[in-house]
């Protein structure tokens, strides 16, 4: 459990010290006071990256030389220092030189309003979600994915130079290699989404007993078919100078009462779907030994008071959960932190 948070020159926080006593924490206050930034800092101290920018320097307070985040849990003290020269990370005051040894000391699951793009946004948003989440729980998937990207790049380069009547030796080698790795990816995605779908449905039901949701895998080409398709569609790939088929074109579809959620579900329903999806990930992670913190940024907006209560009452109890919002809430056993201009 996180017991203390200290921010120094992080975003708009010159110096902030919060002592935490409970498992549920609600941080509220007016717009722009830095609620998201606190959740972002907890996220950053876990993964050494932000959920909303790839530019770490944006986290340093304007005109300050560095930013610092200290997170104290029951077990350890985590510190990250961000400066012009990069990010340094420390566990219990000892610098950890290899970031892969530092990250995930505690795990974070975050919902941020940007995550609504999972439903509303482009297929690439959904593929990215799949790849990030699956890589976290299955290392061979991550390795296959980077192998796939590398072969795909080579194949695309080949397609730029290949003529319809050219020798096909290299084309065959690379197409066969790509298909083998692609099938591994498709198979793993299939299994993962099946599990995710079950957990997603169950989580969503705790917030809303009436409606039915689902997430479906729509592979661009079905398992074990890619090799044949790539041979059959060779001329199209040559003409367009790229690889038109494969898991890099896969899609996930979200359904709400058997309809496409993107166009059918309301804003509030979409929000609950994404939160349920994020919580479903917890149900399929197999890592009781790693402490997990849930971060819910601005989850309550667009929800009516009944849905707000249902959401707050059905959050999994075993995980410490930080929630941000604008107005205070009436719910028991939650630590409410009021951010004001002076805090
Ligand atoms: N590097 C920085 N230096 C100083 N201030 C910054 C920096 N980056 C962002 N800010 C400011 O920090 C403030 C905090 O933003 P944040 O998104 O955390 O607020 P919030 O309380 O979550 O707001 P909202 O309720 O509107 O979501 C904003 O006013 C923003 O302009």
UniProtKB/TrEMBL annotation:
Database matches in Pfam families: SMC_N (PF02463)
Subcellular location: Cytoplasm
Keywords for this protein: ATP-binding, Cytoplasm, DNA damage, DNA repair, DNA replication, DNA-binding, Nucleotide-binding, SOS response
Binding-site positions, ATP: 29-36
Record domain RecF/RecN/SMC N-terminal: where: 1-327
Signal peptide: none
Gene3D superfamilies per the UniProt record, alphabetical: P-loop containing nucleotide triphosphate hydrolases, RecF/RecN/SMC, N-terminal domain
Main location: cytoplasm
Chain's role: The RecF protein is involved in DNA metabolism; it is required for DNA replication and normal SOS inducibility. RecF binds preferentially to single-stranded, linear DNA. It also seems to bind ATP.
Protein family per UniProt: Belongs to the RecF family.
HAMAP family in the record: RecF
Name this polypeptide is given: DNA replication and repair protein RecF
């Amino acid at each position: 459990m996180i017991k203390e948070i200290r921010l120094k020159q992080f975003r708009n926080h010159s110096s902030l010290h919060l002592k935490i006593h409970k498992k549920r924490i609600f941080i509220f206050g007016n717009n722009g006071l830095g609620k998201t930034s606190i959740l972002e800092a907890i996220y950053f101290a876990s993964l050494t990256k932000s959920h909303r920018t790839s530019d770490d320097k944006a986290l340093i307070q304007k005109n300050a030389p560095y930013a610092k985040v200290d997170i104290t849990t029951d077990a350890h003290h985590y510190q990250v220092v961000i400066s012009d020269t990069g990010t340094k990370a420390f566990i219990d005051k000892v610098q950890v030189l290899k970031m892969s040894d530092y990250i995930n000391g505690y795990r974070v699951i975050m919902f941020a309003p940007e995550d609504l793009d999972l439903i509303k946004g482009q297929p690439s948003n959904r593929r990215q979600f799949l790849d990030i989440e699956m890589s976290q729980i299955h290392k061979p998937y991550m390795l296959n994915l980077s192998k796939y990207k590398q072969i795909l790049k080579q194949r695309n380069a080949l397609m730029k130079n290949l003529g319809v009547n050219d020798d096909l030796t290299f084309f065959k080698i690379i197409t066969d290699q790509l298909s083998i790795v692609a099938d591994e990816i498709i198979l793993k995605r299939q299994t993962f989404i099946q599990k995710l779908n079950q957990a997603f449905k169950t989580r969503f039901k705790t917030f809303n007993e009436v409606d039915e949701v689902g997430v479906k895998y729509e592979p661009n080409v079905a398992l074990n078919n890619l090799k044949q398709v790539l041979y059959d569609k060779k001329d199209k790939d040559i003409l367009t100078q790229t690889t038109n088929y494969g898991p890099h074109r896969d899609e996930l579809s979200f359904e709400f009462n058997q309809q496409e959620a993107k166009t059918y579900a309301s804003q509030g329903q979409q929000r609950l779907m994404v939160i349920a999806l994020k919580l479903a990930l917890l149900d399929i992670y197999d890592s009781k030994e790693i402490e997990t913190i849930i971060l819910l940024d601005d989850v309550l907006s667009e929800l009516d008071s009944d849905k707000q209560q249902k959401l707050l009452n059905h959050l999994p109890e075993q995980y410490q959960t930080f929630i941000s919002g604008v107005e205070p809430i009436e719910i028991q056993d939650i630590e409410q932190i009021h951010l004001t201009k002076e805090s």
